[in-house]
Amino acid sequence: MTLAPETLKDQVDDLGPLLRRAALILVALFVAIGLGLGLVRYIQAADPYIHEVLSLEGNISQGEAIFKMNCAVCHGFEATGEVGPTLVRVSDHRTKVSLIKQVISGQTPPMPQFQPDPQAMADLLGYLESL
Fold first, then answer.
1. What is the mean pLDDT of the chain?
2. Fewer CB within 10 A of the end CB, N or C, for the chain?
3. Which of 129, 124, 59, 39 is nearest to 88 (CA)?
4. Using one digit for the tens of pLDDT, what is the confidence trace for 66-82?
Protein backbone atom coordinates (compact mmCIF):
# COMPACT_ATOMS: atom_id res chain seq x y z
CA MET A 1 0.00 0.00 0.00
CA THR A 2 1.33 3.40 -0.88
CA LEU A 3 0.26 6.68 0.54
CA ALA A 4 -0.18 9.82 -1.46
CA PRO A 5 2.19 12.59 -0.37
CA GLU A 6 -0.77 14.66 0.81
CA THR A 7 -2.00 11.81 3.08
CA LEU A 8 1.48 11.33 4.57
CA LYS A 9 1.79 15.07 5.18
CA ASP A 10 -1.58 15.10 6.95
CA GLN A 11 -0.50 12.21 9.18
CA VAL A 12 2.79 13.94 10.06
CA ASP A 13 0.96 17.20 10.77
CA ASP A 14 -1.42 15.33 13.08
CA LEU A 15 1.58 13.98 15.01
CA GLY A 16 3.08 17.46 15.40
CA PRO A 17 1.28 18.46 18.62
CA LEU A 18 1.69 14.96 20.05
CA LEU A 19 5.42 14.93 19.35
CA ARG A 20 5.79 18.44 20.81
CA ARG A 21 4.03 17.30 24.00
CA ALA A 22 6.21 14.18 24.19
CA ALA A 23 9.36 16.30 23.74
CA LEU A 24 8.23 18.70 26.49
CA ILE A 25 7.56 15.78 28.82
CA LEU A 26 11.02 14.34 28.12
CA VAL A 27 12.68 17.70 28.74
CA ALA A 28 10.74 18.11 32.00
CA LEU A 29 11.77 14.60 33.04
CA PHE A 30 15.46 15.26 32.35
CA VAL A 31 15.31 18.56 34.24
CA ALA A 32 13.63 16.85 37.20
CA ILE A 33 16.26 14.10 37.22
CA GLY A 34 19.04 16.69 37.00
CA LEU A 35 17.56 18.68 39.87
CA GLY A 36 17.16 15.50 41.88
CA LEU A 37 20.80 14.58 41.40
CA GLY A 38 21.83 18.10 42.32
CA LEU A 39 19.72 17.89 45.46
CA VAL A 40 21.39 14.60 46.44
CA ARG A 41 24.82 16.18 45.98
CA TYR A 42 23.72 19.22 47.99
CA ILE A 43 22.43 17.05 50.83
CA GLN A 44 25.65 15.03 50.90
CA ALA A 45 27.80 18.16 50.88
CA ALA A 46 25.57 19.69 53.56
CA ASP A 47 26.85 17.11 56.08
CA PRO A 48 28.81 19.34 58.52
CA TYR A 49 31.90 17.10 58.51
CA ILE A 50 32.02 16.88 54.70
CA HIS A 51 31.34 20.60 54.39
CA GLU A 52 34.20 21.41 56.76
CA VAL A 53 36.60 19.05 54.95
CA LEU A 54 35.73 20.64 51.60
CA SER A 55 36.31 24.13 53.02
CA LEU A 56 39.91 23.30 53.99
CA GLU A 57 43.00 23.20 51.83
CA GLY A 58 44.77 19.87 52.05
CA ASN A 59 48.49 19.48 52.53
CA ILE A 60 49.64 16.75 50.13
CA SER A 61 52.75 15.74 52.11
CA GLN A 62 50.69 15.48 55.31
CA GLY A 63 48.12 13.48 53.36
CA GLU A 64 50.82 11.13 52.11
CA ALA A 65 51.99 10.53 55.69
CA ILE A 66 48.41 9.82 56.79
CA PHE A 67 47.96 7.48 53.84
CA LYS A 68 51.16 5.56 54.60
CA MET A 69 50.20 5.15 58.27
CA ASN A 70 46.57 4.14 57.71
CA CYS A 71 45.94 3.02 54.14
CA ALA A 72 49.16 1.68 52.59
CA VAL A 73 48.90 -1.75 54.22
CA CYS A 74 45.92 -2.54 51.97
CA HIS A 75 46.33 -0.08 49.08
CA GLY A 76 50.14 -0.33 48.76
CA PHE A 77 52.77 2.28 49.56
CA GLU A 78 52.48 3.61 46.01
CA ALA A 79 48.66 3.28 46.12
CA THR A 80 48.78 0.72 43.32
CA GLY A 81 46.67 -1.80 45.22
CA GLU A 82 47.30 -4.84 47.37
CA VAL A 83 44.29 -6.14 49.32
CA GLY A 84 42.43 -2.93 48.44
CA PRO A 85 42.14 -1.51 44.91
CA THR A 86 44.58 0.84 43.26
CA LEU A 87 43.96 4.47 44.09
CA VAL A 88 46.08 5.87 41.28
CA ARG A 89 43.91 8.40 39.41
CA VAL A 90 41.00 7.66 41.75
CA SER A 91 39.86 11.29 41.52
CA ASP A 92 39.27 10.78 37.78
CA HIS A 93 36.20 8.70 38.57
CA ARG A 94 35.24 9.58 42.15
CA THR A 95 34.09 12.97 43.46
CA LYS A 96 35.58 14.54 46.57
CA VAL A 97 32.33 13.84 48.45
CA SER A 98 32.30 10.18 47.41
CA LEU A 99 35.96 9.77 48.42
CA ILE A 100 35.26 11.26 51.85
CA LYS A 101 32.18 9.07 52.30
CA GLN A 102 34.16 5.99 51.25
CA VAL A 103 36.87 6.66 53.81
CA ILE A 104 34.56 7.45 56.73
CA SER A 105 31.81 4.88 56.08
CA GLY A 106 33.52 1.53 56.48
CA GLN A 107 30.81 0.12 54.20
CA THR A 108 33.22 -1.70 51.89
CA PRO A 109 34.73 -4.58 53.84
CA PRO A 110 37.49 -5.15 54.69
CA MET A 111 38.02 -1.38 54.72
CA PRO A 112 37.56 -0.15 58.28
CA GLN A 113 35.58 2.90 59.27
CA PHE A 114 38.06 5.76 59.61
CA GLN A 115 37.11 9.37 60.37
CA PRO A 116 40.13 11.57 60.86
CA ASP A 117 39.71 15.16 61.98
CA PRO A 118 38.62 17.46 59.13
CA GLN A 119 42.11 18.84 58.42
CA ALA A 120 43.62 15.36 58.27
CA MET A 121 40.82 14.27 55.92
CA ALA A 122 41.45 17.33 53.73
CA ASP A 123 45.15 16.41 53.68
CA LEU A 124 44.37 12.80 52.75
CA LEU A 125 41.94 13.97 50.07
CA GLY A 126 44.62 16.27 48.65
CA TYR A 127 47.05 13.37 48.49
CA LEU A 128 44.51 11.06 46.84
CA GLU A 129 43.79 13.72 44.23
CA SER A 130 47.52 14.01 43.50
CA LEU A 131 47.88 10.34 42.61
1. 81
2. N
3. 129
4. 999 999 999 999 999 98
Q: Look at the domain 48-130 and name its fold.
A: Cytochrome Bc1 Complex; Chain D, domain 2 (1.10.760)
Specify the long-range contacts of residues 78-82, CB closer than 8 Å, at least 24 apart: 79/128, 79/131
**Residue ranges covered by each domain of the chain:** 1-46, 48-130
User: What does the pLDDT read at residue 47?
Assistant: 86
Answer whether residue 23 shows pLDDT above 80: no
Give the Cα separation of 115 and 131 in Å (integer): 21
The secondary structure of the chain as a DSSP string is ----HHHHHHHHHHHHHHHHHHHHHHHHHHHHHHHHHHHHHHHHHHSHHHHHHHHSPP-HHHHHHHHHHHTHHHH-TTSS-SSSPP-TTGGGTS-HHHHHHHHHH--STTSPP----HHHHHHHHHHHHH-
Q: Give this prediction's pTM.
A: 0.65
